[in-house]
Structures are given as C-alpha cells and as structure tokens.
Amino acid sequence: MLFNKRTERYFVWVFFPLALLMPLFLEQNTFYVSKLTTVMIFAIFVMSLDYLVGRCGLITLGHAMFYGLGGYIFVIIAPEYEAVNFWVYTFYICVIAALVALIIGFLVLRTSGIYMIMITLAFAQMAFYYFSDSIDFGGNDGVFIYVKPDTSIFGISLFDLDNPIHFYYLCLLSLFNTLFFFRLVIRSRFGRVIDSIHENPGRTTALGYNVFVFRLMAYTMASALGAYAGYLFTLQYGFVNPSMLAWTTSGSALVMSILGGMGSIYGAILGTLVYEGLHYVLEHLTEHWLLFMGALIILMVILFKNGIAGYLEKLLEKRS
Amino acid sequence: MNNAVILETEGLCKHWGGLKALDDISLKFHDRELHGIVGPNGAGKSTLLNLLCGHYKPTSGKIVHKGEAIDAIKPYAFARRGIGRSFQKTNIYPSATCLENCCVAVQRRMGGSFNFLRSRYRQQVLEEIATEALEKAGLGQRRDQVASRISYGEQRQLEIAMVLATSPCVLLLDEPMAGMGHEESQLIIELLKTLKREYCIVLVEHDMDAVFELSDKLTVMVDGQHLTTGTVDQVRDDPRVRDAYLGQGDEVY
Amino acid sequence: MTTSLFFVQLINGLQYGLLLFLIASGLTLVFGVMGILNLAHGSMYMVGAYLAWYFVQQTGSFTLSAIISAVIALAIGIVVERLLIQRLYRRNHLDQVLLTIGMIFVFNALQSILWGDDPLGVQVPEAMSAAIPLTDVVEYPVYRIFVALVCVAIAAVMYFMINRTRLGMLIRAGESNREMVECLGIDISRLYTIVFAIGVMLATVAGVIAAPMSSIVPGMGEHVLIACFVVVVIGGMGSIKGAFIGALLVGLVDTFASVLMPQLSSMMIYILMAFILLIKPQGLFSS
C-alpha cells in the first residue's frame, strides 16, 4: 500500500480535502490564501529535505542553495519580457538543478557526518555570497520578474498564475504530487536500497551496492525538487533574492522537518504548518519572536524528539 | 584435492604505519573446499579477510580471482564478482524482516535498483530466491520475523543467509560461531558441512574443534606471517604450530 | 602590485588568518574533545564584539572591557554547557545542529533586544591608534599588528597548555579515548565544562579584539562561523594544528583574492576548500 501507515492515510484524507475547500472559506481574504500557498510551497521544500535527512541519513545544512537556485535559474534562462511556458521551464529548472546537484553532490558525498554538515553549509554560503555580491543579479535586492509564465498545455491554460486562487491550487497539486512521488520512491526497489544504506551502509557495500552512487541519485532527486519549490516561490512573489539561499532557510526547514517527524515525509507538511503558524502568531504578539522561536526549538530537541507525526502515530497505535 | 583454484593471494602485505599486520601471504583457495584459517590473537586473520573482500586495500601483493588481479577494484565490486563475506560482529539490517534482509542481497543481482517507481513488494522471483537462501541457512521458519527479534544464533545464520542470497562463489566467514553456545555452534557446523559441497569457503574461527572438524585445508598464521598450510592432520602434527600456540600462552587446544 | 602593497596584504592576510585561528581553534577543540559541533560558536564572536562595545561605553577603557567580556564569556560557557550541551553527548549530529541553531536564534534575539540592530563601532584604543609608515604613502595601523601579536600569544599559550599541562594531557587523552579518561577516575563532565567554556572564551576574545577593526553588525557571527567551517574542513576537524594552517591559508587566500580578483573574492575560499576536499576528503591534518 502506498500510504502504509494508518496515521498517514488519515492525514492525507483530512488534509487534502480541507486544503481543497479552504479557498471557498477564505474567498474574501486573499491574504490567507497566499499565506497558505507559501506554506505549501515551503512544505514541498521541507519534504525534499526530509527525504534526504530522514530517509537517506544525509544531513545537509545547505539545501536552501537549491531553493534559491530554482528562482535564479529561472531568471537566468527565461527571457525578461516574454511569457514562457510554465511546464517547459519546470522541466528545464529541475534538470539544471539536478546537474548542479550532481557536481556538488559528487564533492559533498565523499564525506559524511559532521563534515558533510559543514561542507554543505559552506557550499550554500558560496552560492549565497555569489548572488548577493553580483551586480548582474541585483545583489541583495535580487531580481524582479515582470512577466509570469503561462501554463497552457496544447493551447489549454489550466491555471492563471496571476490569480492567487489558481496559484493556490497549482501549489496544492504540486504538494500532493511530491508526497505521492516520494511515497512511490520509498516503496520502490531504489527505496529498498536507500533504506538499507540508511540502516547499515557498510553491509550494503559488502552486498555489492555502490553506496556513493545511490546517495548521489537521492541527493540529485531531492535537490531538483527543492529547486522546484524555489521556482514556485519565485513565481508567487515575483522576485528572487539571496535570502532564499541563506543558511537560515536551510536551518528553519530542518527544524520544520524535525517538528513534523523526521523521515515520515507527510510530517513535512505538518511541521511546516505548525512552524509557520507559530511564527505568524509570535510575530504578531512580540517584536522579539526570534527569542521564543529559538527557545521552542531548544525545548523541542530536548523533549519532543519524534515530532508531530511520531506523536500521532503513538496515539493512534495505542488506540488500535 | 583437484578442485580449481578460485581465489589466490600472491605476496599479500598490509602495513599500518610501521606495523606489519600481514606480511607476504601467498595462499590458494580451491572450489568446493573449506579452507580454515587459525592463529592466535593478532595473527592477522581478520586483516586477511578484510583484504580478500576488498574492505582494505593491500599495501603490496596481489589478489587473483578466477585468473584476474582484483586488488585495485572498488569494495562493492568484490561482492559483484561473487566474493561474499559475513562479519565477526553481527552485521544485518535489524529493523527489517529476515526475508527483507535477504531481498536486499538478491536484488543486487536481479537489477531494478535504480527503478524509482516499481514497487519493491511486487517481486515473486526475488522473494523465492531470498526464501531459498534463508532455508539453506536453516532459517525458513523465521522468514517474516524482524531481524532484531530473533535469537543471536539465528542472527548469525541470517548473516550467512544474506551472503548466500548474493549467490556467491566464495564465502568469507569471519568467526560465524563467535559467542554461540554449543548447540547453536553445532547447527552452524552442520550448515557449513553442506555448504562446502557447493562453495569455496574461507573460514576464520577460534573454535578449534569446529575448524578441525570442518577444514579440508588449514592455514596457521602467527604475527601476520604464514606459518604453515596443509591438511588438518599435517597441521596438527606440526611442532611449530604447537610452539606458536603455547608460546602465546592461550588458546591451547 | 608593488612590493610594499604586497607586503601590506601579506600582513593583512596573516592577521586575518590568526584571528580566524582564534575562533576556529575553539570550534575544533570542542569538537575534538567532546564530539560536539557548536553552530552557535560564531554567535559568541558576535557577543564578544557587542560586549566590548558596551563595556567601552560604560568604563571608557578597552583593556578593562576586554577583561570583563572574557569573564562573562567563561560564565556563559559554563552555564550553556551545564544547561544544554550536556544533554547532547549521547545524541546524534542532527540534534546538535538543531539545538545550536536554536541557540543562534536566542543569541540573535538577545542582541537585538539589548543593543538594537544598528551598526556600532568601537574606537581603537588611544595607545595603539598610530600607524607605522612603510613607504612615503603606505602605512600600517599599529592596532592590527597588536591583534596579530595577541593571537600569536594566545596560540602559544594554547600550545603550551595542551602539550605541557595536566589539563592539556586530559584534553589529549579525551580526544583519543574517552573511556580511558573516565577509567582514570577523572570527572569527565567537569573536563567538558572547562573545555567548552574555554572554547566560548576564545571566540568571545576574538570578537572583542576584532571590534575596533570592523563595524559591529547583526549577523556578524554567522559570517565568521562559515569562515571557521572552511578553516576546520581544510585543516581537519578536531586538529588544532590543522586549524592553524587552515586559518592562515584561508586568511591569505581571502585577502589576496580580494585584491587580485575582486569578482571572485568571496568565493575563493570555498573553491580552495572544494579543491582540498577533492584531494583529502578528511582535511589536511585529520587523525
């Protein structure tokens, strides 16, 4: 079964129908629609990170590099004043990001553990400084996008990207597809090898698998999806800037994935929702929300190790 | 003993800095024979196994498998050539079922490991081969149990089943009876007796009775050096072997 | 590039490298002995700079300010280790990363609450505000030379401490074999507290002495943390000697790159790192 945990099935059955209906309730309030859109976009990014960290055991602190690259690749390859095709550019961006990930992964995956954490972070910072120092890409201000792509397939346009509700549904569809895709991958024969490598890399090598290549594949795949999320973010706000690649983006994504429940994939959605929700509330209560956020993270690490998904699974298991 | 030579070492050395863990070892391992390797602690037995399976790279010397020098290939490529090994410390996937443990091993040969979309659960042939390996190792009834929940002895059997599932031509077994009780050991000994009719087995083992009972050929190593190789009787009567063991003050048989 | 300019850049590079060493040595020491990757290490550098500014305002004396800051740093180190870091010894890298990220958030928020977000500056102490003329047009500030000398002095003290004293012996023993130290009947948790506090103090002192040379801004800690990562990755995690060589390399490469190829200057050290990784994935002096 694709969603093999009961909790996950429940979640999928509750979350997606609710998310489908949400714009009906919020029709008057496009602010919340676009807020939710951003959360869903970021959830795609967190999911791709969760796959790397939770399923593959590859702890990276540089995943935001691909989030930002998704936007920057778009402004680099797309003509400035001409609407391009959304689907074609999705393909381009994923392929280019995958190529970058292949090169970076080749270097990064030679190392492991603490080294890998530091090196991924260092590479992400390299990209960060490159874009924030460069005049061509507007430095810290980034680049604005004047014309949004159109989404027609064979002349039929499904989504109008300038319409927040349409964009909302595009992102919801993307989120569901990403979840579905990762579930497929985890269940596949490739997923079996990845699970084996996560549990016992030495043994997997001794059985004849080239562990490096499998990790590189997983890294490339997750990076391409991370770039896709960044591309969506860029389209939503109509600009790309270096803060997308900042290490804080990677850091908060990691926090969300832990909060949701490491390695559970669907937990990424929960984690992102709760984190962004807390952020939103704290930001309104106090100017110094960062202090409370930091304290919450510290408490979470010490007390709440299995995340929300882990907690829910425990709860539902007890009942059954 | 006219079986073909499958695996061969020529002047194999492994040095760690100034320490010679293994010095100039030349051995021949034959098909369908069990080749025991014994020696006191620190004799370099495990180092030898780690070199034979590609885990370590030799400082100098050659490893020849079916006529080809293979010491420069990558560790995973050893397993692909059919050189399978079991580990001294139990080295399995504890959270997966026994069947799944073996499926990982079988899948390497069956392919599809880069298939992102094909379900790992649609796999009749794969499971059949994995089950076969489990049964060969005497674990047929434990097929669907999680590996961390079976007994220690059974985990050792699973270890061997996983190697069998790779359909190897050479089995490198590192103390398969370590930490086992008498009855469990007996089970493994019976298992190895049947396996050696089919495979070339290199066995490193501390349990002398077991080694003497099983080996077609026996090599004694001391301090990284090759002392002697011969049949069990030849080795047993060799005075140097007695000296080597008595000199060490332990493990007198 | 003229000879004198080259010379100035050489000193600049060395001085920057030595400052980096001061920070990176704390990071690598804590990792080597305790196995903890402290991402909040850079925050302590920031805290040092802000403390220096604050106490210079209060006391008017840079020396006094430096001493008070160092003492406060020790106290912070002890409290943080006892309260938080101790819980991490048996946890995995990921938990370490997250908890120390939480710490960065807290430190950044405190900085913003206590001192605001506007850039601040500390005057170079009067006694060292002079500059040494190198040629008719080129001169070199005394304070920068002073900073370099302080770093060298601290490095020498550390070298002496690690190689000659009882604490150093324990540190070296703890690096190679944790259980052995425990078996010898030494209170390992106290050793850890001391080492962590020293690590924190090194970063803070670096922040203090760097304060008069650069503007004090939010986010300065993260910036320096990343540079330290590059240093430690190049030198080999856990090796003080590696941190020293790595820091000088990074300092020189960064300084000369910004003169010779300004477009690539901020990326040069990462390119250096990638290059060294290709040759030695575990760094130059890994154990």
Could you give a short description of this structure?
The complex is a heterotrimer of chains A (320), B (253) and C (287). Chain B is of the alpha/beta class and 253 residues long.
Describe the structure.
The complex is a heterotrimer of chains A (320), B (253) and C (287). Chain A is mainly alpha-helical. Chain A has one domain. Helix content of chain A is 73%, strand content 2%. In chain A, the strands form 2 sheets. A two-stranded antiparallel sheet of chain A has the order 1-4. Chain B has 253 residues and is α/β, with parallel strands linked by helices. Chain B is 36% helix and 25% strand. The C terminus of chain B is likely disordered. Chain C is mostly helical and 287 residues long. Chain C has one domain. Chain C is built from 11 helices and 2 strands; from the N terminus they run H-H-H-H-E-E-H-H-H-H-H-H-H. Chains A and C meet through helix 5, helix 10 and helix 12 of A and helix 4, helix 9 and helix 11 of C.
Task: Note the topology.
The complex is a heterotrimer of chains A (about 325), B (about 250) and C (about 290).
Chain A (H helix, E strand, L loop, with lengths): L5 H20 L4 H26 L8 H14 L8 H23 L4 H21 L9 E2 L7 E2 L2 E2 L6 H24 L1 H11 L1 H6 L4 H27 L1 E2 L6 H14 L6 H19 L3 H15 L3 H13 L1
Antiparallel strand pairs in A: 1-4, 2-3
Helix pairs in contact in A: 1-6, 2-6, 2-9, 2-10, 2-11, 3-4, 3-9, 4-9, 6-7, 7-9, 10-11, 10-13, 11-12
Chain B lengths: L4 E12 L2 E12 L3 E5 L6 H8 L7 E6 L2 E2 L5 H6 L2 E4 L11 H13 L13 H13 L15 H14 L4 E5 L7 H14 L4 E5 L3 H7 L2 E6 L2 E6 L1 H6 L1 H10 L5
Helix pairs in contact in B: 3-4, 3-5, 4-5
Chain C lengths: L2 H32 L6 H19 L2 H22 L9 H23 L15 E3 L5 E3 H23 L1 H11 L1 H6 L4 H23 L9 H16 L4 H21 L4 H15 L8
